[in-house]
Structures are given as structure tokens and as C-alpha cells.
């Protein structure tokens, strides 16, 4: 006989574990099935994000930036360091400690909320039953009133650059190098490629990123993308746009990549190659053959605005459904679904989900870009302000970049916030709140911000929408009419 629960969640990543916790808080009996195992082959919660994604990558980004600062910038602050050395094993050990602390924290939360953690691979059966195949191949069946699919995603592979055990790796492998490769190639200059490339560039690699798109960071506001490209190029990242990889071969001590761009055919030889061309939803094998779960042509589960699938009582959230593959997006969907199951009104505002690239400088945005506003025929005004004119940024020696605010030309309502610079992953929350609350640029301009602080750049950008920034001599005010 199947074990019965109110809710069974398949997947213990950010979307799944948050959904499980919120369901438990709302008084439901919950089980969470997850097949992740750590480097010691032990079951562990947290999914890709906590184990080989968001968290370990940010740990390495932080550590590598500290190393670079110690080598190149501390002397300018009057701190002279002699013989700065890289201890890569210690850096990796720090990454592992951070990861272990957070994954064990999720397990503690499960115990606190009396959530049944079921290690193994979950497969949806008919009538809201879930078959679990344990790591010992033993099978059991769980039955539920509601099932939440949160099985996450995996790195996309490409035939022209097949992975190898050592030389050609995906994002997971690039977080675990045992030495700094003298020459590193990265296929893909998107979020993952840039973050990984930044880590190893700061640690000493010569990094070449091959990007098939002709425009850098197509999802980012054009002005912000151009500024970011300038900063990354100055750091020594070699970003080659319009570069379409045609093939690769692994030699004894290197990898040779053949690619083509507007100037013809080229060959690149590197010591290691990272394939970072995106991610695909983990929906293969998620359901039994007689379960008619509706998927789209890319393998994503089809859902409505509240993440209901075509199957009664079955929901899907996170990376397996439409929208950006972001942990915080999946978390909010998990909370929404839990509330909906409990009979409460709930929704996610997909128009104001923030996105961040954790390079240095950081890139962050929320809302609409200039390009989108133009394509939709929406009249708007632009206000921007550089970090170079901000006292706190100067004190930090972090003056690259700017904050840009887009406001409706008629109503003055904020439509988009875009930024590149220091700590933009934190500053973007100001923009998200402005968008969520329907603020005008005047509302922001009339708000008092602490001095000196980086947030003043956001304030000045809001002032600039109306042509009244204080700390630039000649403000530039731009607008575009509808149509």
C-alpha cells in the first residue's frame, strides 16, 4: 500500500524545498523526493543551486575577487601585501564548507517542519501517485492529494564539443578544477559563461569566450551590455561574438576548437574547455508512459499562470516551466502553489523578476529594456547616473558602471531599472520594489537616501529622468515617443 501525503514534491532544489516548507507551514503532510548525491555519494538537499550552481559559483566569485583585489588594488588603499599567493585547494574547501552549511540547513528545516525527505528518483504515476526508486534501487510508492513537479534542469550539451572527464567540462566541472588552466576556452558568453570565465581569469587563466550571438548579452538593455563589454574587455576577457563552434578535438594536453565568424574559419587551442550554452529542463523520465503530462517542444511542462499542469492536482514549478531559470523565481512559484493548494489567492508577478550576473562589475536588471519599449511602441524617458560620480564608489575604488531608470513618458511610472556596477545584486531590489509598487520616478526622486551610499546612484538616476540630477554638471535627458 502506498504511503499517503497531502503533498508530494519531486525535487529538493530551491523551488521544491521552498514549496515543501510552505505547504508544511500551511498544515499539510508533505514528502519531498530528491535524487541528488554529494561528492561522497550521500543524499543531500538543495539541488543544482546549492550544490553545483548558485551557491558554489558565488563562493568562488567572491574568493577570486578577493584574491584579485589583494594582488592589484589593496596597495592603493595603503595596505601593502607581500607575496600574495593563491591556495586553490583552500579556496575550494571554503566553497565546499559554504555549500555543506546551506544544504545541511535545508535538512534541518525539513526536520523542523516534519517534512518526509525521501532520497531517490521520483516518477509521476497515474492518479497522483509517485514511484520512488531509491539509491539502492528499492522502489516504493507515495500517494498524494497534490503533486508538485520541481525536478530542475541540467546543463545543455552540444555535439560539436562532447564532454570528457578532464579537458571538456560543463559548468559543474568548471567549479571543481584542481589547478588553474593557463588557457581556458568557454563556449557561451551568457550568465554562466561570464561568471565562470571571470573566476578563472582573476585566478590567472587567459580566457577566451566564444559567443554565437552577434550582440553581447541580448537579454540585457543595450546600453548596459555595451558598458559591461567594455569593462570585461579591460579585465582581459577575450569575448568573440558571432563565433559559431563547428567542432572540437581533445589532444593529449589540450583541446582544439574550430569555429567560424564573419571573418572566416578559425582554430583555438586551450588547456581546458567549458561548455556553457544554457540548460534544459529535467523532464525526461519524469512521468510513466501512461501519464499524459503536457510538455512543449523544448521539454518544458505546460502550466497556467498558477503553475497548474493539464493533470488535476499536479503542479510544476521552477526550471521545468516557462520563464527565466532563476532560483528566486522558482521559490516564489513554490510559495504560490502552496498557497493555491491551501485555497488562498496567490500569484507571481513575472514582469518584475530581477536578474543578476555576478561578475565584477555586477549586472542587474528588472522590468523592460529600452529595446522592448521601442518594439512595443511605448513612449518613455531615460535617467542615468554613473558610479564614477558617487562618493562611496570612489572610496571603494569601484567606479565602473551606471544605473539607468526608464519611466513612462506620460504617467512617469517606472517601467524598467538596469544597472552595471558594484553591488548591483543588492541595489536592484530598489528597482524591483519601485516596479512592484507602481512608483513614479518622481516618487524615487523625492525619497531620501543615505549619504554616502551606493544607493545614491539610484536616487540620482531617478532625478535624471526629470533632468534634475544634482551631482553631474550637464545632465543628459533622453526620451522616446510612442510609435
From TrEMBL:
Record EC number: 1.8.1.4
Cofactor-binding details, from the entry: Binds 1 FAD per subunit.
Subcellular location, record wording: Cytoplasm
Swiss-Prot/TrEMBL keywords: Cytoplasm, Disulfide bond, FAD, Flavoprotein, NAD, Nucleotide-binding, Oxidoreductase, Redox-active center
Residue ranges annotated for the FAD/NAD(P)-binding domain, each copy included: 5-334
Gene Ontology terms: biological process: 2-oxoglutarate metabolic process
Major localization class: cytoplasm
Key word Cytoplasm present: yes
Family membership noted in the UniProt record: Belongs to the class-I pyridine nucleotide-disulfide oxidoreductase family.
Protein name as catalogued: Dihydrolipoyl dehydrogenase
Species annotation: Sulfurifustis variabilis
Amino acid at each position: 500500500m502506498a504511503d499517503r501525503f497531502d503533498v508530494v514534491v519531486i525535487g529538493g532544489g530551491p523551488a521544491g524545498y521552498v514549496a515543501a516548507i510552505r505547504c508544511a507551514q500551511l498544515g499539510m503532510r508533505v514528502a519531498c523526493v530528491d535524487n541528488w548525491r554529494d561528492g561522497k555519494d550521500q543524499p543531500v538537499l538543495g539541488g543544482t543551486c546549492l550544490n553545483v550552481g548558485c551557491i558554489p559559483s558565488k563562493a568562488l566569485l567572491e574568493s577570486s575577487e578577493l584574491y584579485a583585489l589583494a594582488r592589484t588594488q589593496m596597495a592603493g588603499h595603503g595596505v601593502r601585501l607581500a607575496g600574495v599567493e593563491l591556495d586553490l585547494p583552500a579556496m575550494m574547501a571554503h566553497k565546499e564548507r559554504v555549500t555543506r552549511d546551506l544544504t545541511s540547513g535545508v535538512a534541518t528545516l525539513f526536520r523542523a517542519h516534519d517534512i518526509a525527505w525521501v532520497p531517490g528518483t521520483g516518477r509521476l504515476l497515474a492518479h497522483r501517485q509517485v514511484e520512488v526508486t531509491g539509491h539502492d534501487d528499492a522502489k516504493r510508492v507515495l500517494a498524494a492529494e497534490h503533486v508538485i513537479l520541481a525536478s530542475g534542469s541540467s546543463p545543455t550539451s552540444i555535439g560539436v564539443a562532447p564532454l570528457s572527464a578532464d579537458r571538456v567540462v560543463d559548468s559543474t566541472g568548471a567549479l571543481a578544477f584542481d589547478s588553474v588552466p593557463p588557457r581556458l576556452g568557454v563556449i557561451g558568453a551568457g550568465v554562466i559563461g561570464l561568471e565562470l570565465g571571470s573566476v578563472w581569469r582573476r585566478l590567472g587563466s587567459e580566457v577566451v569566450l566564444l559567443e554565437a550571438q552577434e550582440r553581447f548579452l541580448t537579454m540585457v538593455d543595450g546600453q548596459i551590455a555595451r558598458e559591461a563589454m567594455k569593462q570585461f574587455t579591460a579585465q582581459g576577457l577575450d569575448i568573440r561574438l558571432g563565433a559559431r563552434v563547428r567542432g572540437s578535438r581533445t589532444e593529449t594536453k589540450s583541446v582544439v576548437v574550430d569555429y567560424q565568424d564573419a571573418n572566416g574559419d578559425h582554430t583555438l587551442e586551450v588547456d581546458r574547455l567549458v561548455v556553457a550554452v544554457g540548460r534544459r529542463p529535467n523532464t525526461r523520465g519524469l512521468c510513466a508512459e501512461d501519464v499524459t503530462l503536457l510538455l512543449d517542444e523544448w521539454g518544458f511542462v505546460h502550466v497556467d499562470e498558477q503553475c497548474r499542469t493539464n493533470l488535476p492536482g499536479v503542479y510544476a514549478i521552477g526550471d521545468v516551466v516557462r520563464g527565466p531559470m532563476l532560483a528566486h523565481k522558482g521559490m516564489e512559484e513554490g510559495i504560490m502553489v502552496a498557497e493555491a493548494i491551501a485555497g488562498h489567492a496567490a500569484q507571481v508577478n513575472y514582469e518584475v523578476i530581477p536578474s543578476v550576473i555576478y561578475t565584477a562589475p555586477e549586472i542587474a536588471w528588472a522590468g523592460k529594456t529600452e529595446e522592448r519599449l521601442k518594439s512595443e511602441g511605448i513612449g518613455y524617458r531615460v535617467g542615468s547616473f554613473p558610479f564614477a560620480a558617487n562618493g562611496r564608489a570612489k572610496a571603494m575604488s569601484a567606479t565602473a558602471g551606471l544605473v539607468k531608470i526608464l519611466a513612462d513618458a506620460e504617467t512617469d511610472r517606472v517601467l524598467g531599472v538596469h544597472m552595471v556596477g558594484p553591488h548591483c545584486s543588492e541595489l536592484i531590489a530598489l528597482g524591483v520594489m519601485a516596479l512592484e509598487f507602481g512608483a513614479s520616478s518622481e516618487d524615487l526622486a523625492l525619497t531620501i537616501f543615505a549619504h554616502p551610499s551606493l544607493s545614491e546612484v539610484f536616487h540620482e538616476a531617478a532625478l535624471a529622468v526629470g533632468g534634475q540630477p544634482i551631482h553631474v554638471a550637464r545632465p543628459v535627458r533622453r526620451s522616446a515617443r510612442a510609435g
